[in-house]
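HOLO CASE FILE
Compound: zinc ion
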Amino acid sequence: MIIDHHNHVWEGESTGGFLDESMSVGRILREMDQAGVDMCGVCTVAQAIDNDYVVKAQREHPDRLFGYCMVNPRMPGARDTLKKYLDLGLKGLKLHPRLHGYQLGDLGMIAPLMELCREYKVPMFSHGGSEENDHPFYFEEIARAFPDVTVILGHMCALNYCDDAILVASRNENIYLDTSTAELFSLKAALKKVGASRIMMSTDWPGNDFRMELLKVRIATEGDDEAYRLIAGGNYERILKGY
Ligand SMILES: [Zn+2]
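Model generated. Tokens follow.
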């Protein structure tokens, strides 16, 4: 089964720029079919949080879509918001420290959310890549404070911090790397140093195309069908079962 865990759906008034393009459920399903992707993890956009649309998407297409709950931990009631959406069936927490203006390593802010992830046995998945907000070492602090929670490092912290992302994944068993935006050579390096069992195909649709991401994973794993199977879905199948 091909599972791509990192994508966005959103439906609302155009706000210009990135949000001008349609990110509807109908469109992602069409493009998944075109590329042969069986299931996608989806979350809202950080710029205009709409978790209700994600819940609706998951309920209407439970065999194709599973949702993360996006929370801005700086907002009052963030923990209650996460609890509400996990109770509604969403499958994990999504954070975007850079766009929401905080440090992922701020445990006082993040720990209450991580405690819920532990209680509900769901992963924490964050955007990664900026030095100030979501550097790989912040992921490591969280992963060490919560060794029993799966921590997914978005974009493998591309483009500037892939090496550090691979380093922290290599020494923390609960850190997984997300392939979106990462260069082919970074993916190959991650395969060597971390192994296929903690890397997950991630397109970050609609920013990228499923066919390109699948091809990148296919080329990186050439000659190793088991590595392809794990990265293109096998690893996330394990996580969805509650690891
Ligand atoms: Zn994304």
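CASE NOTES: The mean pLDDT is 94. The first strand starts at residue 3 and ends at 8.
CLOSED: yes
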